[in-house]
Design brief:
about 200 residues; alpha/beta; binds adenosine-5'-triphosphate
């Protein structure tokens, strides 16, 4: 099976996540996409991240009824640090024989050299699908010089540029700006009913 691996904090999951993951599913011929909710992402240490229970409830709401999208607990049911290279090892054991295609935005590809063991990470992926992101210029020569394993693995996904981020959605909620249509309806409804992200 061709399986996508989409890691994130999903704080909250927004429509860009869904649009882009679905486009990757289609263009990269993935039979399913595992949404790996990261507890404490090593590259976001020091940033305020909402409690795991809250993000889990929101991600479940976002993926409800999406048969090709599967919530993965690979980074939930283990202690920190949650390095992506270890996530892949866990998923390999859980889905033996699958072709694992790691999905990431251009910002994540740009930052990849600063991830833990980036060369081992790239070697552990069968393919890496990259979604364009506004403002994320990737110096590809530089990134592939540092991580030569990427050269054979990168797959560019032709996605629309969508200027939506979870931090922008959080800011909108905090400041009373419109945010509802940036989110799947079930996610927006849950946030409104619980009063999340107001402070
Ligand atoms: P934050 O604003 O809190 O940093 P985020 O919107 O980037 O959050 P994450 O959960 O960190 O959301 O993202 C998970 C993955 O989705 C990352 O690989 C990120 O690059 C990608 N991604 C998120 N939003 C977009 C977007 N608008 N365009 C392209 N890629 C995106």
């Amino acid at each position: 099976m061709r399986t996508g691996v989409f890691g994130g904090t999903f704080d909250p999951p927004h429509i860009a996540h869904l649009i882009l993951a679905d486009e990757c599913r289609h263009q990269l011929r993935l039979e399913r996409v595992l949404w790996v909710l990261t507890q404490t992402p090593p590259h976001k240490l020091g940033q305020e991240i909402s409690p795991l229970d809250q993000r889990l409830a929101l991600l479940q709401a976002a993926l409800d009824g999406e048969s090709a999208f599967v919530l993965s607990r690979a980074d939930i049911d283990r202690p920190a640090p949650h390095y992506a290279v270890d996530t892949l090892r866990i998923l390999r054991a859980e889905y033996p024989g699958d072709t694992l295609v790691y999905l990431m935005g251009g910002d994540s590809l740009r930052d990849l050299p600063s991830w833990h063991a980036p060369r081992q990470f790239a070697a552990a992926c069968d393919e890496i699908g990259v979604m364009r992101r506004p403002g994320a210029q990737v110096e590809l020569d530089e990134v592939t010089r540092q991580i030569p394993e990427l050269l054979e693995k990168l797959r560019w996904v032709d996605t629309p540029l969508i200027g939506i981020s979870a931090s922008e959605v959080r800011r909108r909620i905090r400041e009373g700006a419109p945010y509802r249509h940036y989110l799947p309806p079930a996610v927006a409804g849950l946030i409104a009913s619980r009063g999340w992200y107001l402070d």
